[in-house]
Amino acid sequence: MGKRTERIETKIVHAGEPSPRIMGAVNIPIFQSAMFEYAGETNYHDLKYIRLNNTPNQAALGQKLAALENGQRGIVTSSGMAAITTALLTILSSGGHLLAQNCLYGGTHDFVTQDLGTLGISYDFIDAKDPSSWESKVRSNTRAIYVETMTNPLLEVADHRAVVEFARSHGLVSFIDNTFATPINFRPPEFGYNLSLHSCTKYLNGHSDIVAGAIIGRADLIEKVKHRLDHFGGSLDPHACYLLHRGIKTLAVRVHYQNASAMQIATFLRNHSSIEKVNYPGLKDHPQHQRAAELFDGFGGMLSFELKGGQSAAERFIERTTIPIIAPSLGGVETLLTQPAKTSHAGMSPKDRKELGITDALIRMSVGIENTEDIIQDFDHALKAA
Ligand code: PLP
Q1: Are β-strands 213-217 and 195-199 bridged in parallel, bridged antiparallel, or unpaired?
Q2: Phi and psi angles of residue 282, each rounded to the nearest 5 degrees, phi first
Q3: What are phi and psi of 67, to 5 degrees?
C-alpha cells in the first residue's frame, strides 16, 4: 500500500486495510486461528500466533492506529492497563525512576504507587502544568516521564510542548495516555511524544462492549514493547480486534459530534445559576484554554462540574436525570455520569483527592451521541430539584 496522505476521517476508514482485499471482503474477516502455518520464520517473535501480537486482525489494527496518529508503528493490547503497564515495564527496570503526572487515571495511579516499588522502581509525582518544578525531581536513574493529555476528572491540560522538550533534553522516554483526546483531537507523535497509549475500551471502540488497548510511537520502542507484550501475554483476541476495528471506523463522526455536544452542554452548565464550577478546556475561562486551543483540534467529550449545593445536591441531580447512565468508564455512544470520588479515584486517599481538587461533590460526564438538546433539557429539569 502506498503512503497515504489523506485527512484523518479518510484514514480512519481506509488505512491499514488488507490490500488486496481478502477474497474481496470489504471488512477484514475474523482470523479465529491461534496459530498459522510455519512460513520459514527464523525468530520466535515472528511466529504467527495470537499471543505474539502479529496475526492479521492485530496487524491491521496496529497499522490503522499508527496511521491515525502519524506514529511510526502501533500495537494493540488486551486492555488499556495492559498497554500502560507493558509499555512502562519495557522502559523501566529495577533501579529505574519515573516522573509521573500527579493526577492520573486511578488504575495507573495505583500501579505507580502500589506496584512499581515492589519491582524496585521508584517514582516522583510532578505538576505537569508547571515545568519549572520538574528539574529538581530528576535523578541520575530517571528513565521516563508519564503524563495524560487531559487529566481525569478535572480536564487540566499539561504543558505538552514542555514535557517533550524536557524528555529530549534529559534523555527520557516520553509517555502520554491519549485516551481522552483520541487521535481526532490530538496526535502525540506529531508533537514528539515517544509512546502514545490508549484505552481503546473508550472512544476508539466507542460502543462500551470490549476492553482493549493500544501503544503507538517510535518503531524501535514498539519493537521492544512487542517483545515484552509477547512475554507478559496481554494480547487482544481476534474477535475483540474485529469489534475494535469496526468501532474505529466511526471514530471521526462520533468524536466530532461529541466535541460539539460537550461544548454546548458545558456552556449551558456554566451559565446555570445552580452550578458552582465547570471543568471543560473548551470554555474560555478554563485555566489552560489557550494551550488546549493551540494543541488540540477539538476539546473532547469529557467534562466535570460541581453544583452549588455540594455533595447532596449532586446526588439529587444524578438521581433526577433520566437519559445518562450512572456508570464508570467513558467514550461510548451513551452519556455517562459518575462521581469520581466514589469510582475512578476511590483508590486515592481523601487527602490526596482534596489536594488535587477532586471533591466529593464533583460529577464527571462522558458525553454520548444522543441529541444535545435532549440532554440539556434533562439536566435543566434535574437541576431544578437539586
Ligand atoms: N487510561 C484512561 C485515561 C482511562 O480512563 C482508563 C480506564 O478507565 C484506562 C487508561 C485503563 O483502560 P482499560 O480499562 O481499558 O484497561
Answers
A1: antiparallel
A2: -75, -15
A3: -65, -40
pTM of the predicted model over 0.90: yes
Residue minimizing CA distance to atom 6 of ligand 1: 199
Residue 264 near residue 84 (C-beta atoms within 8 A): no
Find out whether the beta carbon of 213 lies less than 6 Å from any atom of ligand 1: yes
Which of 147, 148, 202, 235 for a ligand 1 pocket mutation test, highest count of atoms within 8 Å of Cβ? 202
The predicted-structure confidence for 25-61, as pLDDT tens digits, reads as follows 999 999 999 999 999 999 999 999 999 999 999 999 9
Residues in the chain: 386
Q: pLDDT tens digit string along 281-314?
A: 999 999 999 999 999 999 999 999 999 999 999 9
Over range 146-157, report the average pLDDT.
Answer: 96
pLDDT at 2 over 80: no
User: Which pLDDT does position 1 carry in this prediction?
Assistant: 45
Where on the phi/psi map is residue 258: left (φ > 0), alpha (ψ -120 to 50), or beta? alpha
d(CA 31, CA 242): 9
The two beta strands, 336-338 and 325-326, are: parallel
Q: Rounding to the nearest 10 degrees, give the CA dihedral for residues 41, 46, 47, 49.
A: -160
Give the cell for residue 100: 509521573
What are 170-208's pLDDT values in tens digits?
999 999 999 999 999 999 999 999 999 999 999 999 999
Which residues, 6+ apart, have CB-to-CB distance to 270 below 8 Å?
A: 278, 280, 283, 285
Distance CA 63, CA 43 (A): 21
**Which atom of ligand 1 lies nearest, measured to the CA of 179?**
3
Q: Within 10 Å of residue 347's Cβ, how many Cβ atoms?
A: 14
Read off the C-alpha cell for 292.
488546549
Tell me which residue has its CA closest to atom 14 in ligand 1.
80
Do 267 and 274 touch, CB atoms closer than 8 A? no
Triad 77, 81, 84: Cα angle to 5°:
85
Instruction: Give DSSP secondary structure letters for 270-289.
Output: HT-TTEEEEE-TTSTTSTTH
Distance CA 183, CA 373 (A): 27
Q: How far is 278 from 6, CA to CA, in rounded Å?
A: 36
Q: Which residues are annotated as catalytic? A: 51, 105, 177, 202
